[in-house]
Structure formats: structure tokens, C-alpha cells
From TrEMBL:
Protein name (database record): Zn-dependent hydrolase
Family statement: Belongs to the peptidase M20 family.
One function term, GO molecular function aspect: metal ion binding
UniProt key word Metal-binding: yes
CDD domains noted in UniProt: M20_bAS
Cofactor(s) the record lists: Zn(2+)
Residues involved in Zn(2+) 1 binding: H80, D91, H186
A Pfam family recorded for this sequence: Peptidase_M20
NCBIfam families the record matches: hydantase, PRK09290.1-3
Length: 407
């Protein structure tokens, strides 16, 4: 079995952890901010040190390439370097920098793969600044258009295209190309592996996810003199929706989860009723039909709440992913690699979103999990040990090489 340079991987992760620090030891590296630009520049510099070419596509996705003995579609390894507002140092980052370590290791060994291998850093996996999440891999896979991506706007009214150009990462390459296979390493983001003391999670499938962005429209009015029965407060319509979402989540627990994660309103000032509110809802369930049912129940209750609040409502956007099944041959490569390395492993489902879901629509795809301490994530306290990183990246290395070198 091949093994990586564990110290170099950890040093690389710790260098990334210096770029865009949060306030409590984690990271605040929102997509397409100057901090994101800085970590992208660092990735480019690392690639250049080892003579790996870097290509950037029109969505800002970055591809670090190791040439193979023959040409043809590359074996792709990837994840993301952007983070949440209270992000950790490893969510997504381990997948990109673990991929870089795979290339570096092969170079050290003088191992030229049969097929080229590329490492991708996807733009805006998190969806924390521009909604929805995973939008650049969605465009890469033909689920959304590039113009749609360019037109997304953040809370300050900045258009995604302008943010992309401001950090110099609107690339020339077309978005989307043939790929031989897609491998993604990610921290688990739940406590199962850590609690059970298992080294490796082999992800066979995901929870079905249904996302909704809902807009409520009311009328501004004075909070004092306006009679209760004449009010059209958008905040109230959205709040009924938020509470209903939470109640549906409890009704389907523990398998089902429903979250009202974001509520914005305008003018959102004391002394005035809001004429505008937007609510973000997401629903997750291991069974597709149940996820659809949860979404439909939430929509029905949103309609009731809007009527009570006397506000209009509409679904502004929706997103769907997660029920894709991962490629059995790739899943087996992870299992074989973990076995060969003497690591404990278990099959599991992913409850979080990953670019791999979209990639699975265009190429054989599979995700690999490493444990994370206590399952803490999307939190600055998110942490892993060097052994977690090393074990998982060793599995990634051997699985990727087996794929790239096959006949
Ligand atoms: Zn992530």
C-alpha cells in the first residue's frame, strides 16, 4: 500500500488554517471574499512548486493537474476551500488539500498514473454568502446555467460575477468537461465514527434533501396605530413558516430533519411592520418519498400561516439532491484500500450536502469520511487529529491510484 507524507499534509492544513481566521480558532472564509482569494492563491503557489498546472473555469472552479501516461478524462479528486461564517479548519479543506497531498506523494514516488489526476476546489460549496450551496458543481454538471450562477446576489447586493472578478478568479476554461471518476474526502460532520472509534466511513448514499427559499410580501405600516386585523406583516408570515418547519421536523424525527435556517426581513426596524421577508428551509430524510412528504406538509402549513398573517407568499427557488447512489466500484475501492491499510471501516449515509451529489450525475462518484472530534462542525471548534487526516488521505491515495492505473 502507498502512504502519504503525513507531516506535510498536516503542515499544509495548518497553513490553510491561518487564512481567514474566525474569532474562536476556526475560519471565516466566505466564498469569493479576499480571504478566499488568498487561499486560492496559496493553492496555486503550492501547485506551482511541484510543477502542477492550474486551470480555472468560468465559475471559478480551480483544477490542479498531474499528467498521466496517457491523455483522456482525468480522475478527479475534490472538495472546497470556502467556509461558513463560523467555519472549521477541515470541512471541505481536508478534501482539497488531501487531494493535493495525493499528487505530491505520487510525484515523490515518481509514480506516473496511467490517466491524469486532477484536484478541484469548487467555488461556493457552502452557500453561506451566495445561496444555494454547491452551485458551481451544479453548473459543472449541467444542473444550472453559468448565467444563473453569475446573477446570484449576496446580502449586501453584490452580484456573484462581480465578486468572482474582484478576486481575479473568473477563469477562461469552459465549465464542465468529461471526468473519468470523482472522489471526495470529507470529515463526517456527525459523531458516529468518532464515538465508535472507527477510522473510515465509506459513504454509499445520502439523505434526500429538499431546499426551499420562500418570499413573503406584506405592507409596511406603523406598529402603534395600525389595527391588528389590518396588519400584513411579512415577518409574521415567515415566522409561522419557520415554526411549522420545525414542528414537521420533530414529527419525522429521528430519521427526518427539517430546518428553518435563515430569515431575513425588510425594513426590519423597530416601529414598522415589514413588507418583505425571506425564509430558507431545508428538509432531510433517508427516504425520498418521506422527504417529499415533509416538504409538502411544510408548504401546506406555510400557506395557512400566510393566510393568517394576510401576506402573499411564493417559492423563489428550490434545490434537490442527496438520493443519488454512489458508484459500487468506487465504493469498493475505498473498502479495499481501508482493508489493505489495516484501518477499521463502516458503510454509512451522508446527511450533509456535498458537490459529489451533483458529480454523481455525470461520472462514477463516491465519498469517503474521516471522523471529526465529537461530530462538531459548522462551528469554529471543529477539529480532527493528524491521524484522522492521515488515515483518510491514505485511503484516498490508494483508491485514486487504483482507479487511475486500471487497464
Ligand atoms: Zn463541506
Amino acid at each position: 500500500m502507498l502512504t502519504i507524507n503525513a507531516d506535510r499534509l498536516w503542515r499544509t492544513l495548518m497553513r490553510s488554517a491561518e487564512i481567514g481566521p474566525g474569532v474562536a480558532g476556526g475560519l471565516k472564509r466566505l466564498t469569493l471574499t479576499p480571504e478566499d482569494g488568498e487561499v486560492r492563491d496559496q493553492l496555486k503557489a503550492w501547485a506551482a512548486e511541484d510543477g502542477f498546472a492550474v486551470t480555472v473555469d468560468g465559475a471559478g472552479n480551480m483544477f490542479v493537474r498531474m499528467e498521466g501516461a496517457s491523455d483522456g478524462p482525468p480522475v478527479l479528486i475534490g472538495s472546497h476551500l470556502d467556509t461558513q461564517v463560523t467555519g472549521g479548519r477541515f470541512d471541505g479543506i481536508l478534501g482539497v488539500l488531501g487531494g493535493l497531498e495525493v499528487l505530491r506523494t505520487l510525484k515523490d514516488l515518481g509514480h506516473v498514473p496511467k490517466r491524469p489526476i486532477e484536484v478541484v476546489n469548487w467555488t461556493n460549496e457552502e452557500g453561506a454568502r451566495f445561496s444555494p450551496p454547491m452551485m458551481a458543481s451544479a453548473v459543472f454538471c449541467g444542473v444550472e446555467t453559468l448565467d444563473w450562477l453569475y446573477d446570484r446576489v449576496d446580502d449586501d447586493g453584490v452580484r456573484l460575477l462581480d465578486a468572482l472578478e474582484a478576486i481575479g478568479y473568473r477563469g477562461e476554461a469552459p465549465v464542465g468537461k468529461p471526468v473519468d471518476a470523482y472522489f471526495e474526502l470529507h470529515i463526517e460532520q456527525a459523531p458516529e465514527l468518532y464515538d465508535e472509534g472507527i477510522d473510515i466511513g465509506v459513504v454509499t448514499a445520502g439523505y434526500a434533501v429538499r431546499g426551499l427559499l420562500i418570499r413573503f410580501t406584506g405592507e409596511t405600516a406603523h406598529t402603534g396605530p395600525t389595527p391588528m386585523d389590518r396588519r400584513k406583516n411579512a415577518i409574521i408570515g415567515a415566522s409561522y413558516g419557520a415554526v411549522a418547519t420545525n414542528e414537521v421536523g420533530h414529527a419525522y424525527a429521528p430519521l427526518g430533519k427539517a430546518t428553518a435556517s435563515r430569515l431575513v426581513a425588510w425594513p426590519n426596524k423597530p416601529g414598522i411592520l415589514s413588507s418583505f421577508a425571506e425564509l430558507t428551509v431545508d428538509v432531510r430524510h433517508p427516504e425520498t418519498e418521506a422527504a417529499d412528504r415533509m416538504r409538502d406538509e411544510i408548504l401546506a402549513r406555510i400557506a395557512e400561516g400566510a393566510e393568517k398573517a394576510k401576506v402573499k407568499w411564493e417559492v423563489v427557488s428550490t434545490w434537490t439532491y442527496g438520493e443519488e447512489r454512489f458508484d459500487p466500484a468506487l465504493v469498493d475501492l475505498y473498502r479495499q484500500a481501508a482493508k489493505g491499510l489495516g484501518l477499521s471501516q463502516k458503510d454509512m449515509m451522508s446527511q450533509a450536502g456535498h458537490d459529489a451529489y451533483y458529480m454523481s450525475r455525470v461520472a462514477p462518484t463516491a465519498i469517503l469520511f474521516s471522523p471529526c472530534i465529537d461530530g462538531i462542525t459548522h462551528n469554529e471548534a471543529e477539529d480532527i487529529t493528524p491521524a484522522h487526516a492521515t488515515n483518510a488521505t491514505n485511503v484516498l491515495l490508494n483508491a485514486v491510484v487504483a482507479r487511475a492505473d486500471r487497464d
